[in-house]
Amino acid sequence: MLKLTSDRAYKAAIYLRLSKEDGDFSVCGEKLESDSISNQRLLIMDHLKKHPEITVVKEYCDDGFTGANFERPQFQKMIEAVKTGMIDCIVVKDLSRFGREYIESGIYLQKVFPLLGVRFIAINDGYDNAQPGAAETELVLPFKNLMNDSYCRDISIKIRTNLDAKRRSGQFVGSRVVYGYMRDPQDKNKLAVDPEAAPIVQDIFKWKLEGLSPAQIADRLNSNGILSPIEYKKAHGSKQRTAFQTKQKALWSAVAIYRILNNEIYTGTLVQGKTTTPNHKVKKTVVKSEAEWSRTENAHEAIIPAALFDTVHNVMQDDTRSPVGAKGVHPFSGKIFCADCGSPMVRKVSRCGEREYAYYICGGNKADKTCCSSHSIKESAVFETVLAVIQAHISAALNMAEGMKCIEDLAWENRELRKIEGKIAFQEEIIDKSRRLKTSAYEDFRSQIISRDEYETFQSQFDLRIREAQETIAKLIGDRNSVKYGLSEQQGWLAQFREYENIQEITRRVVVNLIDRVTIRENKDIDVALKHRDRFAAILEFLNEERAKEDNGKIIRLTKEAV
């Protein structure tokens, strides 16, 4: 161990640090060197004028890094320089600049530095381990470090509480804005639609409905010269970098498309607080349960209607792999099944000369001939049948729309919304009750009223009820979004079918919007399950009720006239 004296020559490093919460920023948002960093430097250099034995050989500055841990790039470089002997003296403004972590700060000051013969000076704390009487000052150091640690903990708690309050009030507190949006110039905690990027997001959702895979969408965007999200941000002045970029210019990827298609933020719903850290000292990210997320609907302007997002989300759950060389998935991909064994029907192609014949066979039979029969059927027959069913469905829908004109505008939609909200409230009651019962079961277990096996059985039952209720709520929210989409367009839900009024061919977009499931029977009968069939039944019931009221009113009037 080297002897520390104030008369030997020292090669010093000055260490400067400031937390990012206290930093100074330019008007454009880029970080400047903080005034406090400059003040630290001036104070240290002024102090060293009184110590000619100390020569500054290096400055290390961590501007924008917390003192709650020592995972700071410049600090680690300084320690490496100490270990190699390039530096044998460290000068800081005060102990809080060196670090606010109580235990590790003490290890450096009381073990590491004395062992390596490093002189340590904390100016404002009056500490210099090479000066006489330093041992007496060291008695106070643990208390100062503990106070610094407590300060860091208190700041962390206040920041967490403040961010949580902002999330619950629907304010955006993210560090990065998702592609398609920008920070509102009038309110940094609110998102505004980016007029340049938003149309690209809308195209991505449109192409997905048309049957393109995420990889094919990415290829189309790249071939059209559309900048990827990271390159778009760079072009608009951002210095954002990513460790995943392997090329000089980042391109669109299937992963980027997949993230956009699954991001609910484009519907105007702000979902935040998905991850957290255990405390201010442990920076390992922990994923929170969905029940703990902060969710605010209508927090900002939507780029994608909620009903369209739900449709795309459902499409993403289907098997929509594109055949090699195809421009997109086949219209019935993920929608056509065997009526007997439930297996997906597999599309096969046979060629005779220059002609090509496509047909479907049972996937279960293809894998195991003893499982089911082939259920073989021509693709053309499926197209013709589904087209006929859809045309009849649309005709009925438009006839209903005409009948709805005679009734108060949007009356059906308003009634449906009330029914859906009631069903959602009922499922939420089930969740609340199940959670209370879980807590009660735990208390009974702690009180030894029930055994561990009984407790675990109750817990699994309550968890199952909660999951089922959450799944039902998700479906009901999709129904609610579908109805609200009609309301937001200032028209009844049935009027959406006018888009397909003169349909003459089956496309992927038509299938994903109107078809729930197509099943093929062994005798080649085709069953077409349409979306919204429950809603059609509800409309018919509503129309019959309204007509019954109208007929009853006529009878009453005629009776009064007769009297």
Short description:
With 563 residues, the chain is an alpha/beta fold. The chain has helices at 35-48, 73-83, 95-98, 102-116, 134-138, 141-168, 198-209, 214-223, 229-235, 254-261, 306-317, 363-367, 379-404, 411-446, 452-488, 508-514, 533-562, and strands at residues 10-18, 54-63, 89-92, 119-122, 127-128, 181-184, 187-193, 270-272, 275-276, 286-287, 294-296, 336-338, 345-352, 355-362, 377-378, 515-520, 526-530. The chain folds into 4 domains: 10-165, Resolvase, N-terminal catalytic domain (Rossmann fold); 169-327, Putative Large Serine Recombinase, Chain B, Domain 2 (Hect, E3 ligase catalytic domain fold, Alpha-Beta Complex), CATH 3.90.1750; 330-410 and 492-531, no CATH class; 411-491.
Structural topology:
Layout (H helix, E strand, L loop, with lengths): L9 E9 L16 H14 L5 E10 L9 H11 L5 E4 L2 H4 L3 H15 L2 E4 L4 E2 L5 H5 L2 H28 L12 E4 L2 E7 L4 H12 L4 H10 L5 H7 L18 H8 L8 E3 L2 E2 L9 E2 L6 E3 L9 H12 L18 E3 L6 E8 L2 E8 H5 L9 E2 H26 L6 H36 L5 H37 L19 H7 E6 L5 E5 L2 H30 L1
Parallel strand pairs: 1-2, 1-3, 3-4, 12-16
Antiparallel strand pairs: 4-5, 6-7, 8-11, 9-10, 13-14, 14-15, 16-17
